[in-house]
From TrEMBL:
Biased composition (Polar residues): 325-342
Record text on subunit structure and interactions: Homooctamer.
PTM-bearing positions, type 2,3-didehydroalanine (Cys): C217
Protein keywords: Chloroplast, Iron, Metal-binding, NAD, Plastid, Thiamine biosynthesis, Transferase
Role of this protein: Involved in biosynthesis of the thiamine precursor thiazole. Catalyzes the conversion of NAD and glycine to adenosine diphosphate 5-(2-hydroxyethyl)-4-methylthiazole-2-carboxylic acid (ADT), an adenylated thiazole intermediate. The reaction includes an iron-dependent sulfide transfer from a conserved cysteine residue of the protein to a thiazole intermediate. The enzyme can only undergo a single turnover, which suggests it is a suicide enzyme. May have additional roles in adaptation to various stress conditions and in DNA damage tolerance.
Protein name: Thiamine thiazole synthase, chloroplastic
Region annotation (Disordered) ranges: 1-59, 323-342
EC number from the UniProt entry: 2.4.2.60
Family statement: Belongs to the THI4 family.
Source organism (scientific name): Dunaliella salina (Green alga)
Superkingdom of origin: Eukaryota
Mod. after translation: During the catalytic reaction, a sulfide is transferred from Cys-217 to a reaction intermediate, generating a dehydroalanine residue.
Catalytic activity: [ADP-thiazole synthase]-L-cysteine + glycine + NAD(+) = [ADP-thiazole synthase]-dehydroalanine + ADP-5-ethyl-4-methylthiazole-2-carboxylate + nicotinamide + 3 H2O + 2 H(+)
Gene encoding the protein: THI1
């Protein structure tokens, strides 16, 4: 951070020809009485000019028009990511880089994305990231202290805020936070194992989802996709939402739940088991522990990041396969129509 001297100044923008220069107004501070506290230094502040209209309508439209345009654009996405915790954000970041043509919608139930990655273990500030996940930190230019087998970020929020900002900068990613995934879209497909594939998510405002008992009917909306990546975390209020639903529909066996803590094996199991669990759905992060019965890992985040990155590559492979199948089916229909016309 640059050190400023006592006389704070503001850089003036060039003034267009014919316009008068408006000097920034200063906050004047009365002199302190003898023996009293020192006055605050005057700080030059340019007060915003009053807009030509004082109606709040344009402000409202500036937000709503963009939001509803995003709803329209991402109603049919290539990939939906459920959960914007560390693995979900890592997946979105990696996928946005390796597939810039891919339209990615992130559905996050909380107002604040990031899941549990704003703090380390037991609400401590530092974040432990076991190697080789530090490679992502290098890519993001997040500093750390190297402790040999792992690195330590001085505050977990530094990594999470940086990763989140990079995800939001991507032109092919839209984050819908404060939005709950209430259910899954399941469609028949005779060409996949089990005859069904996951084709998107059922959404609602999180506050509505939490208060369905107050009204007789608060119907949801949908976001369709060719692939869903579920990174909803371990069991909790919104945790393991996808594997619970898959088990209820009989698409996966009974869920054993995650095992007790074993830091030596937990992270490898999460990364190795990151996979397409049923046609159209890829699991990442701690949600895998719920369905595989693998141990919880405690206060380390390396596997969350690497699992998210691996999930991006798995999801892209699933996406390209489905796109090829759809293109082939479209070509076959076109050929059939030409034959009938002839």
């Amino acid at each position: 951070m640059m050190m400023m001297n006592k006389s704070l100044s503001m850089n003036k923008a060039p003034v267009a020809a014919g316009r008068a220069t408006q000097q920034p107004r200063s906050l004047k501070v009365a002199a302190a009485p003898p023996g009293g506290p020192a006055p605050e230094p005057a700080f030059p502040v340019a007060a915003p000019e009053a807009p030509p209209r004082t109606s709040s309508g344009p402000v409202s439209r500036a937000m709503t028009s963009r939001y509803f345009a995003d709803l329209d654009k991402y109603a049919e996405s290539d990939v939906v990511i459920m959960g914007a915790g560390s693995s979900g954000l890592a997946c979105a970041y990696e996928l946005s880089r390796i597939a810039p043509d891919c339209k990615i919608a992130i559905i996050e139930g909380g107002v604040a994305p990031g899941g549990g990655a704003w703090l380390g273990g037991q609400l401590f500030s530092g974040m432990v990231v076991r190697k080789p996940a530090h490679g992502l930190l290098d890519t993001l230019n997040v500093p750390y202290e190297d402790e040999g087998d792992y690195v330590v970020v001085k505050h977990a929020a530094q990594l999470t805020s940086t990763l989140l900002s990079k995800v939001l900068e991507a032109p092919n990613v839209k984050l819908f936070n404060a939005t709950a995934a209430e259910d899954l879209i399941v469609k028949p497909d005779p060409n996949v194992p089990g005859g069904k594939y996951i084709a998107g998510v059922v959404t609602n405002w999180t506050l509505v989802s939490l208060n369905h008992g107050l009204q007789s009917c608060m119907d949801p909306n949908v976001v369709e996709s060719k692939v869903v990546v579920s990174s909803c975390g371990h069991d909790g209020p919104f945790g393991a939402a996808s594997v619970k639903r898959l088990a209820a529909m009989g698409m996966v066996p009974e869920i054993p739940g995650m095992g007790a803590l074993d830091m030596n094996t937990a992270e490898n199991r999460i990364v190795e088991n990151t996979r397409e669990i049923v046609p159209g759905m890829v699991l990442a992060g701690m949600e895998l522990a719920e369905i595989d019965g693998s141990p919880r890992m405690g206060p380390t985040f390396g596997a969350m990041l690497v699992s998210g990155q691996k999930a991006a590559h798995v999801a892209l492979a699933v996406l390209r396969k489905r796109q090829a199948q759809e293109a082939s089916a479209t070509g076959n229909r076109s050929t059939g129509q030409k034959t009938m016309t002839a």
